[in-house]
Specification:
It contains two helices and no strands. By secondary structure, the chain is an all-alpha fold. The chain starts with a helix and ends in a 34-residue tail after the last helix.
């Protein structure tokens, strides 16, 4: 049992260690074309940045009293087996 735990720990440590250098374009490859309306191609660092729309903020509204749920047209029953 102890060997299994040690082996799992070593495998997790091995999986966690990876290359820690900056990304670069390989020889013979090129970056994707510039987006429509932009004259300059983005650099690799710009391609890795996520736009604000890709990470929406979570809105959590606390309920102070119970409310009736609206009908959900996508809440379908499970399929019947034939």
């Amino acid at each position: 049992m102890r060997r299994i735990v040690i082996a799992c720990g070593l495998l997790a440590a091995l999986a966690a260690c990876g290359s820690r250098k900056d990304l670069a374009v390989e020889a013979g490859q090129q970056l994707p074309p510039a987006p429509y309306g932009r004259a300059v191609k983005p650099v690799p660092g710009e391609l890795l940045d996520t736009p604000p729309l890709a990470i929406p903020e979570r809105s959590v509204e606390l309920r102070t009293r119970s409310e009736k749920r609206e009908d959900d047209p996508f809440d379908l029953p499970p399929p019947e087996d034939k």
